[in-house]
Amino acid sequence: MKIIACIKQVPDSEAKVKAEDGRVNWGDAPLVINPFDEYAVEAALQQKEANSGSAVTALCVGPESAKEALKHALAMGADEAILVSDPALESLDTAGAAKVLAAAIQKIGGADMVIFGRQTLDNGAGLTPAQTARVLHFPMLGLAGSIKVEGGSVMVERVIEEGKQTVSAKLPAVLSVVQSIGEPRYPSFMVIRKASKANIPVWALSDLGLAAPSPVVLRRELINPPVAQTSIEIISGETPEAIAETLVEKILAEKVL
User: Fold this and answer.
1) Beta strands in the chain (DSSP E)
2) Bridge-based pairing state of the strands 31-33 and 9-11
3) Is 143 exposed, middle or buried, given 0-12, 13-18 or 19+ CB atoms closer than 10 A?
4) What is the pLDDT of residues 88-146, one digit of tens each?
5) Whether pLDDT at 149 is above 80
């Protein structure tokens, strides 16, 4: 079985967001593999172990620096890694990313199972898995907490707000997984060193037979809440009864009651 784990490189979750000129800026935060995508790699490796003869490919769309995120996936146990990088992909929305990922998957030779994390840490839309499934014409099984392959079909237990839901589909299929799939394995130091020396192929848009997508302006702006206008009035009177009567009149005048 051919399994592809789609990952992304994002700013470290421990990074402090900066506000500059009304815009959100990650500053010089270190870049890491998207934490949710570690679960996607873990799920892919679990299926590799459960189905003999399977292989896992880690696939990423991003800048040259994203090789480090792919090396993390290799250290976890992925068999190979591929990076799609092109200057024309600098501003890419989820629909554009889905088209690029689908083209890369087809160039790889297709897949029996494509696995995503539930969302990315930077944008968090969670739309790319379903959009990729649509481009590939694969069924989509989202929010999987467990996966079982049997007889050319895949069955997953979805973790949703109402509880759990069991659904199945014929392979090939696209899945997104949640944390209950299992904690991502931590690679040993020697495996990390070996993965750090891996030669990761880089594909441009021309290698995929794709034209440059229309530029998309992604804006992250800070919206300042309106300043609350408050005023205080101290009611005085000769007796408590007089103060209460004045207070009632003001409440009625303001139509509070």
Assistant:
1) 2-7, 9-11, 18-20, 23-25, 31-33, 55-61, 80-84, 113-117, 140-150, 153-160, 163-170, 173-177, 202-203
2) antiparallel
3) buried
4) 998 889 999 999 999 999 999 999 999 999 999 888 889 999 999 999 999 999 999 99
5) yes
| C-alpha 51: how far from chain center | 26
Q: Tokens for 152, please give them.
A: 């050319």
93: region left, alpha or beta (phi > 0 left; psi from -120 to 50 alpha): beta
Give the C-alpha distances (Å, rounded to integers) separating 69 from 62, 147, 165, 195: 10, 24, 32, 11
Tokens 């979750």 belong to residue: 13
Contact 144, 47 (CB under 8 A): no
Amino acid at 133: A
| All domains of the chain in start order, with CATH | 2-208 (3.40.50.620)
Strand partners, 164: 159
Give 181's contacts (C-beta < 8 A, 6+ positions apart): 39, 42, 43, 46, 144, 145, 146, 147
Task: Return d(Cα 30, Cα 15) in angstroms, integer.
Answer: 8
pLDDT in tens, 51-101: 999 999 999 999 999 999 999 999 999 999 999 999 999 888 999 999 999
Contact of 68 with 92, CB cutoff 8 Å: no
- CA–CA separation, 59 vs 40, rounded Å? 11
On whether the CB atoms of residues 82 and 43 are closer than 8 A, the answer is no
Q: To 5 degrees, how large is the angle CA 199–CA 203–CA 208? A: 150
